Fold this sequence. Notes:
Chain A is α/β, with parallel strands linked by helices and 415 residues long. Chain A is built from 15 helices and 18 strands. In chain A, the strands form 5 sheets. In chain A, strands 9-8-10-11-12-17-18 form a 7-stranded mixed beta sheet, with helices on both faces. A 5-stranded parallel beta sheet of chain A has the order 4-1-5-6-7, with helices on both faces. In chain A, strands 2-3 form a two-stranded antiparallel sheet. With 292 residues, chain B is mostly helical. Chains A and B meet through strand 9, helix 9, helix 10 and helix 11 of A and helix 1, strand 2, helix 9 and helix 10 of B.
Amino acid sequence: xxxxxxxxxxxxxxxxxxxxxxxxxxxxxxxxxxxxxxxxxxxxxxxxxxxxxxxxxxxxxxxxxxxxxxxxxxxxxxxxxxxxxxxxxxxxxxxxxxxxxxxxxxxxxxxxxxxxxxxxxxxxxxxxxxxxxxxxxxxxxxxxxxxxxxxxxxxxxxxxxxxxxxxxxxxxxxxxxxxxxxxxxxxxxxxxxxxxxxxxxxxxxxxxxxxxxxxxxxxxxxxxxxxxxxxxxxxxxxxxxxxxxxxxxxxxxxxxxxxxxxxxxxxxxxxxxxxxxxxxxxxxxxxxxxxxxxxxxxxxxxxxxxxxxxxxxxxxxxxxxxxxxxxxxxxxxxxxxxxxxxxxxxxxxxxxxxxxxxxxxxxxxxxxxxxxxxxxxxxxxxxxxxxxxxxxxxxxxxxxxxxxxxxxxxxxxxx
Amino acid sequence: xxxxxxxxxxxxxxxxxxxxxxxxxxxxxxxxxxxxxxxxxxxxxxxxxxxxxxxxxxxxxxxxxxxxxxxxxxxxxxxxxxxxxxxxxxxxxxxxxxxxxxxxxxxxxxxxxxxxxxxxxxxxxxxxxxxxxxxxxxxxxxxxxxxxxxxxxxxxxxxxxxxxxxxxxxxxxxxxxxxxxxxxxxxxxxxxxxxxxxxxxxxxxxxxxxxxxxxxxxxxxxxxxxxxxxxxxxxxxxxxxxxxxxxxxxxxxxxxxxxxxxxxxxxxxxxxxxxxxxxxxxxxxxxxxxxx
Lengths: 415, 292
C-alpha cells in the first residue's frame, strides 16, 4: 500500500522529467501580409521546411537537437489604407511577445521591408526576407553594414528582375527584330524601381520606349495604356503588377485587339489555376515566375519542394502556388537551420557569419549571398537563383526562359 | 477621328456607366429613405462571392446572378429591420452601424481566405466590337446599356408607379406621408431592399471584367460616395452628371496625362464641386437649409 502511494507520488515527477530536459524549440517569426496569396504560400512553404527538419530530429545547436516552431502574425500591409507603421507595429508585437530567434518571410511591401530593417538593427536577430523586392535593401546594407548585417534576402530583388527581364527583351529583339515596347506597371516601389531600371537598360539596348504608365493599386481599367500601345505600334507590352485586379489587363488587351506580345509579371496569371479563372483569355501571355516553386527547376531539390508542398497541402494548393515567395521561404528555413548548426548557437552575430558562408542547392537554384546579402538571380541555377518565364498555351504553362531549361520557344500573337 | 480621342470618348462612356451602376443602389436608398447605407460595398462584394458560390453549386450564371440579386435584396430588407430600425433617425448611428456591417462582411471574406485569384464570374456576352475605330468588348457595352436602362427604369418607377410615388412622398416629407397612410418603416425597408439588390446587379455585371478581389468592396463604397456627393445626394440627374464628369475626367487624364493622376483628378473634382456647390451639382438640400 505504501509502495503504491509512493509510486503514485513519483510517477508524475518521472513523467515530467523528459519535458524538463527536452530542449525548448527555436522560435521563428513570420510577420507578413497573410491576406495575400504570396504571404499565405510563403508561410506554408516555411512550415513545410520546418516539418521536414523536425521530422529528421530538428536542428543541432551545440550538443542538443532542437525543434523549430513557427509563430506568425498578419501585418495586413498589402491591404489598401494600411500604413507602414501598422505593419511595423504588428512585427514589433510578434518580436516582443514571442521572442523569435530569427524572422523568415518578412515584409511583403518594399516600403515595409525598408523600414523593418531599422527595427531589426535594434533587436539584432537574423531576418531572412523572401518577398520584398526593393533595391534600397542592398543599398542600406552596402552603406551601413554593421547596422544592417542581420538582414538577408532569398527572393528575387528588383535589380535582378531588371537583369532577367532585360535578357528576355534582348532575346525578343534578336529573335524577332522587335524594338518598340510599352511599359504598364503598378504604382508601388518595387514596380516603379523595376520599370525605371528596365527602361534605361532597354533604351540603351536600342529599344524605343513608347510609354511607361503607372496605375494606382486597385485599378481595373487599363484601356488608356492599351489604346496608346496600340496606336503607337508597340510590339511588346510589359506589365508589372502584384495586385489581384491586374488580371483585367490581359482580358482587356485581348478585347481591344492590341497586336503586341504581352510579356511581364501579372500575379493572378502566374498560378496554375489562372487558365480556368480567365477562361483562356491569357492565351499567349508570357509571365515571369520570380522564383521557381510553382514550376520547379529540373533539379532534385527544386522538385522536392514542389512535390513536398503537394503532399503536405494537396494538389489543389500546389496548383495555386504563387510565382513569388514560396521557393525562397522554403529555402530560408533550411539556410537558417544550417547556419545555426554551423554556428553551434543561436547567437545572432555568430549565425550571421555562418549565413554569409551559405552555399547550398535550394528550391530556387543555388543559394549564395552577395556582398549586400541578396541571393543573385540570373538565368543559370548553377550560379544563383533562377527566374523562369512561361507562356500560356492552350491551358498549359510552357517554360520559355531561361533557354537552358526552356520547354519551347515564345510563340507570337497573330498580328 | 484621332485614335486617342475616340478611345477617350468610348472608354469615358464605359467608365461613367461603371461609376453610375456602382452608385445607383447607394443613391436610390438615400434618395428614398434618407438612410446612407454604408454597407453598400460589403453587399457588392457579398453579391460577387454569392453568385460565384451558386455557380459552383451547379447553377448557370444567369440563374445564379438572378438568385443573388433576390437574396441580397432580402438581406437589405433584413439589414433595415435588424440594424437600422433601432437607430432610425440618429444619422451618425445609422452611418456607423451600416459601415460596421459592410466592413464585417468584407473582412469576413478576407478572414475565410477568399484572397486567392480563383474567384471570377463569366461575362454575359463574350467578344468585342469596333466603335469609332476603338475595340471594346460587349460586356462593357452591356454595362452601359444596363446602367442606362436601370436609371431610366428607376426614374419611371419612382415617378409613375404607386409604390414609387409613395416612396418619393416619404423622402420629401415623412410626416405628411404618414398622414396619408404611407408607413415610414415599410418604405425605408423597401428602399434598402431595392438599393441592396442594385448593388448585387452592379456586382454580377461589373465583376466579370476581372476577378473578385476583397478590396473591390471598399472601392465600390468609395465610388458610390464620390458619385452621389458630387452629383447631389437626392438627385438622379445629378448622379448621372456626377458619373459622366468623373468617368470622363479619369479617362481623359489617363489618356493624356497618365493613369496615376486619375485618382487626383477624381478627388480634386469632388473638392472643387463641393467648394462651390455644397449640395453637389444638382442637389438642393444645403441651399434649402441656407435659405431657411
